Amino acid sequence: MVSRDLLRRVDWLLVAAIGLLLVIGEQAVRAVTQSDFLGDPGYFVRRHIIYIALGLTLAAVAVVVDPRVYRRLFWFIYGGTIGLLIVVLGFSAARGSQRWIPLPFFTLQPSEIGKVAMIVCVSVILADCVRRGIRGWGMVLRVVLVMLPPFALVFIQPDLGTSIVYIAIALTLMVVAGLPGRIVAVLSAIGVGVVVVVLGVLPSIGLPLLRPYQTERIVAFLDPEGGSPAAYQAQQAKIAIGSGGLTGRGEGVSQTAGSFLPEHHTDFVFAVVGEDRGFAGAAIALLLYLFCLWRIGRIVPRARTLEESFIAAGVFGMLLTQVAINIGMVLGIAPTTGIPLPFMTYGGSNTITNLVAMGLALAVGARALPRDALAPAWTGRRGPRRGEPGDAPPGTA
Amino acid sequence: MSAPTVGEPTREYEPPPPPRPPGDGFDRDRIGRRMAILAAIAIGLIAILVLRLWSLQVLDVQRYRAEAVSNGLRSIDVPAPRGQILDAQGKVLVGSRPANAVAIDPTRFPDLLVACGRDVAGPPDLRDDNLRALRIADAVAAANALGSERRRARLAAIDRQITGGAEVRAWAGCTDDYPQLAELARVSGITVASMEDAIHEAAVKAPFDSIVIAEDVDRSVLFFLKERAALYPGVRIVEGTARDYRTVRGADGVRRPMAPHLWGELSEVSPDQITDQVTYRDAEPGDVVGQRGVERAFDRYLRGTNGSLERRVNAFGDPVGPIVRSEAAKPGDNVRLTIDVGVQAAAESALRDAISYARANGHPAAEAGAIVAIDPRTGAIRAMASYPGFDPARLAGPDGQEYWRRLAADGKGSPLLDRAMTGLYPAGSTWKPITAIAAVQARQAQPNGIIQCTPYVDIDGQRYRNFESDVDEPMDLVRALTTSCDTYFYELGNRLYEATPRNGRFEPQPLWAQRLGMGQTTGIDIGGDAPGRVPDAAYKRRRFGDDRIQNRWTSGDAVLQSIGQGDVEVTPLQIARLYALIANGGSLVTPYIGASVVGQDGTVRETFEAAPGERVPIDPYVLAAIRRGLEGAVQDPDGTAYAAFSGFPIPVAGKTGTAEKKGKRDFAWFAGYAPASNPELVVVCVIEQGGFGGETAAPAVRQVMARAFGVDEATIAQVQQAQEAGVYDGPALGRDPAREAQRVD
User: Fold this and answer.
1) Is any Cβ of chain B less than 8 angstroms from the Cβ of A283?
2) How many Å is the maximal CA-CA distance in chain A?
3) ipTM score here?
4) Interhelix angle for B28-54 vs A306-330, to 10°?
5) Are B594 and B338 in contact (CB under 8 A)?
6) Which of A165, A344, B146, B607 could form a disulfide with B150 if both were Cys (CB 3.0 to 4.6 A apart)?
7) Residue range B452-481, pLDDT digits in tens
């Protein structure tokens, strides 16, 4: 049985915020998929709700499981993820990339599961580094060694968006783990350099590393009126969002429901929220994400163990990256990449993955030290400073 | 919630231990500070997003909302039902009925337009055979890019096109990747090739509209597709109207469309046509307009004004909401013609009868002909028939293109040709009144002047034979017309030639022919008639250029022209106009077919007055002599058409013609009018390769006149008996008193 104590310590505010976001997403998917599947207006939303239920169930399991287990399951998790990522390459390509494994009830996207798996694995590695006093380049080397195989497998699918999320997770975790600022700066410089080389130098010497559609999306971002299909999608999203106004146009209006925006229930679902609910609804959704980030971030310094702290930080990084890039893309300030919006985008793998990630964060939070156990500026409450009088050991105060 | 099955914990929850002493590396302060940096980044990013949201949704809302609204509202034209075409009595000749077309939405078939739009864009001045070579090369290149099996099939098809001399369609097979389209073509009853042609045309012209692949499909097709809408995504039914053509049952029991040549086909207005704001007044892009004939001439009345519906649609153009705004279509007005259904039907059956008679009586090559019936007083056309005909409904139907190709390829019959207006024939003896008028007006002959009619005459060393070889009789003009003596007119032709300056510039015969309407269009209101040809000195120079021997106007030209031969080309309509002039005493009328415009409520909106006839200055006694000659041809027992009109209770005047055309059998003509004393109707008939005019064409004219004047066969038989018994006392039988009264004013 689950103890009352655990249930009491679960961050119900975070749960409520996630629940609200799920409801907003479900409404959006319901509103725009009425006519997407001939003869069955409820086809997509019914499946969406099933995925949510499945995700919530798995998230609950994640809350109950003691996160310390994951250290012992490291090789199982890591090996399993690599295995799935290799298996997926054997299946036929859809829309130009091999991302999905067809299962009887839905198609599994291993790169999504890989996000959570990488959070857990990198957290374990980083905890070891910190314990053994390895900072600096040694830490970077170890993280790169762990991340490279899954990253490479995702990149060659190709799935540029998810690979970016992987990098963001790793970077977030290293920053939290105390990677010196100058190394962060060097890594950022390398990142910028890679982007320049891949986009600028390699194509000009006849070595295009990106697929044509990826280049086209970047071109479309830089030249939104250019008339390419990717630019069309981005332009239609902007029109949808912009037409929403302050309070929205209500459900079933033309732009998103009328399929002018083809990916209306998947990567561009936020455009539906923007059009139907207006600035009010979209801003509330954004603030709910910020609220979730705060509730996750606040437990990072108070986690029971280093691993748990890093897991929470990884979930934070993953959520922030996905929200920022996806909504940035919908609003036309980031290039089009296939990154789903957590809790809203229709789809089994990403819904379940994000909810399980939230389950992990909740599990860490439920086992964290009480708020008054330490006194960082972080919590917003001024406790006794370290070394000052009144610095009592936690739990005894 | 059940306990987890994995791993260690026997207790799901363990109270947190006290913080570890420094040394295990868990520096909470440091992590907290790092986390604070990340939190700041998060707040910054979300703030940027909120600001961007504000800018899009609050600052720029007007612009984007306008775009979204125009995105989602679509105005759909509701085509106006086209007005009906009525006959003189108001009977419907061409009606309108609901019709449905099958269309596809190209956006539902990715890459279809690219595949079907392919063609070789050669420079505009590229010669056809070069363009064809380019097309072949392009089609072969496209085929080579395919998999082996399809490549072989495609190359074989190209080979067939090349050897068959057909157009090389670079887009052939562009629907191969869409099995549902092949199925759709099968269901709609069209060929895949014609579907591909339609898609190709749309891809080149207007790639974003839905593409009509089959027009006016059967209702069963409609129901089939509607029931299985889910199986045919991207397929639409476009509702519209189609023409319903009057048919008439012949004596053989077969229903045939009436006067198919008169109407002209309907199709979408072209950019050039839109600029013609007289014919196509107020036409807008996408409107369906008449391309020829009555439909074109009266398009501005028949077309009506399209209505419109504005409704919400999704990106595929499927309606998703109620109608926002609607404006009813205003149906077109009806146009009443001068055509009389009864006379027209009689003309058509008379043509068929005449041709089958000719074929059965030694003229097996007879297979085409035309009849024109006009009112000599006004030029109103009562009937205009051309044989063979075709089915205009089928031409507009799903297999129309195929049908058209077949009709156009029918070299012998050329069913699409309107022989009444555009058929060009040697005039033969029907021309003789022109020669007579020219000779008398040029003071080279007098109607009562006597010329010996002989089996032949020799002029300038050339022998010209008379049609009738057993004759030697002095004749005046009346007698010459009655018996159709060729040598009499040869002599007139030669006199005219002798009297003309050698350069032939003022050759009276061609001059008078032109004054009498030959060699020029008639000005008929529906247009499209052929001008024909009157050879003169200028024509000879044009035709033979610098050849000093051939390019001169010679006595031979004048002599041959005197009997309507020698490169003379006339249309039956022109001959009808000539005989109308003879019948009405010298006025050249302008034939017309449109009588009035009648609104849908029955009110007459506009009446087309007959253009006043052009008076041609001809001495009345010449016309009087010609009229007596024509009466003789029908009523005198020596007349060439006496047998054909024997017993006809109304006095008829007319002229037979048996025209010769190189490489063909004789063309049979008859042109006449009735009643002879006060003509109301001119009827002209020509039967291609039909033999003697009096034998083949004159009975056809009699059939038409019998119908027009309400004479039945029983009356004719009665009169015949009375004539034989010598008790017939004048042409009074079978007359309608009402008509008689009309005739007075």
Assistant:
1) yes
2) 72
3) 0.88
4) 10
5) yes
6) B146
7) 999 999 998 899 999 888 899 999 999 999
Tokens (6 digits) for A51:
């995925």
Q: Residues near B76 by Cβ (< 8 Å), separated by ≥ 6?
A: B308, B309, B310, B311
3-state secondary structure of B692: coil
Q: For residues B324 and B73, is the Cβ–Cβ distance under 8 A?
A: yes
Instruction: Tell me which of A145-159, A301-315, B483-497 is least confident.
Output: A145-159
When pLDDT is averaged across residues B556-574 and rounded to a whole number, the result is 94
- Segment (H or E) for B607: strand B604-607
Closest by CA position to A48, among listed A363, A391, A384, A347: A347
Whether residue A301 lies within 8 A of chain B, CB to CB, comes out as yes
CA distance B190 to B182: 10
Q: Are strands B85-86 and B334-337 parallel, antiparallel or unpaired?
A: parallel
Residue with tokens 């048919």: B247
A317 touches chain B (CB under 8 A): yes
Q: What whole-number distance in Å separates Cα of residue A317 and Cα of residue A323?
A: 10
Q: Which of A219, A220, A211 is nearest to A238 (CA)?
A: A220
Write the residue in B37, B53, B63 that is nearest to A279 by C-beta.
B53
Show the DSSP H helices in chain A as ranges: 4-9, 12-32, 43-64, 69-72, 74-88, 110-131, 137-155, 160-176, 181-196, 202-204, 212-222, 229-244, 254-257, 269-297, 306-330, 348-366
Q: How many residues does this entry show for chain A? A: 397
Q: How many CB atoms lie within 10 A of CB B184?
A: 24
Q: Could you tell me which of B456, B446, B467, B579 has the C-alpha nearest to residue B516?
A: B579
Residue B432 pLDDT: 96
Confidence of residue A272 (pLDDT cuts 50, 70, 90): confident
Residue B448 exposed, middle or buried by CB count within 10 Å (0-12, 13-18, 19+):
exposed
B105 CA: distance to closest CA in chain A (Å): 15
Residue (of B578, B608, B569) closest to B682 by Cα position: B578
- β-strands B255-257, B247-249: how paired? antiparallel
Element (H, E) at A224: none
Task: Supply the pLDDT for residue A97.
Answer: 63
Characterize the bridge pairing of strands B307-313 and B319-327: antiparallel
Distance between CA atoms of B592 and B384, rounded to whole angstroms?
11
Of A321, A292, A352, nearest to A17 by C-alpha is A292
HEC string of B429-462 equals HHHHHHHHHHHHHCCCCCCCCCEEECCEEEECCE
Q: What is the largest CA-CA distance in chain B?
A: 151
Selecting from A176, A255, A332 the residue whose C-beta is nearest the C-beta of B31 gives A176
Select from B37, B48, B64 the Cβ nearest to the Cβ of A242: B64
Q: Which two tokens stand for residue B467?
A: 């049609």
What is the phi/psi pair of residue B660, to 5°?
-100, 135
Residue B308: its pLDDT value, please? 78
Regarding beta strands B653-659 and B667-674, do their DSSP bridges make them parallel or antiparallel, or are they unpaired?
A: antiparallel
Tokens read off for B338: 């001068």
**Could you give the percent of chain A with pLDDT greater than 90?**
41
Task: Map out the domains of chain A as residue ranges.
Answer: 9-370
| The Cα angle at residue B110 between residues B106 and B111, in degrees rounded to 5 | 95
- Report d(CA B599, CA A381) in Å as an integer: 88
Distances (CA, A) of B144 to B122, B148, B172: 21, 8, 14
pTM, entire model: 0.61
Distances (CA, A) of A89 to A92, A97, A159, A163, B179: 8, 9, 12, 15, 30
Contacts of B314 in chain A (CB under 8 A): 35, 254, 257-260
How far, in Å, CA of A325 to CA of A342, rounded? 11
